[in-house]
Amino acid sequence: MSDKPENNAYWATNIKIVTWCLVIWALVSFGFGILLRPLLSGIAVGGSDLGFWFAQQGSILVFLGIIFFYAWRMNKLDAEHGVDEQ
């Protein structure tokens, strides 16, 4: 494994992106779906309360959005560091 500065910058940025994606996913799925559910129970969405919606559909939709964001951002990062697929 080489310790080139450009490799370190690439992996540091990759880890930062992964960390932020996991924080957002945890906040939405655990925070909104479980911890903040009582606060969100008064807001109606599609016939149920917002806390239930986050626990059932919202966390899944946010997770899918994170997957697409990660793929887009990693393609951009790969191109910046010259390791993209041609």
UniProtKB/TrEMBL annotation:
Q: Which residues form a coiled coil?
A: none
Please list which residues make up the signal peptide: none
Q: Which UniProt keywords apply?
A: Membrane, Transmembrane, Transmembrane helix
Q: According to the lineage, what is the superkingdom? A: Bacteria
Transmembrane domains' residue ranges: 20-40, 52-72
Keyword Membrane assigned to the entry: answer is yes
Q: Which InterPro entries match?
A: Na_symporter_ssu
Residue stretches making up the Sodium symporter small subunit domain: 8-84
This one is known as Putative solute:sodium symporter small subunit
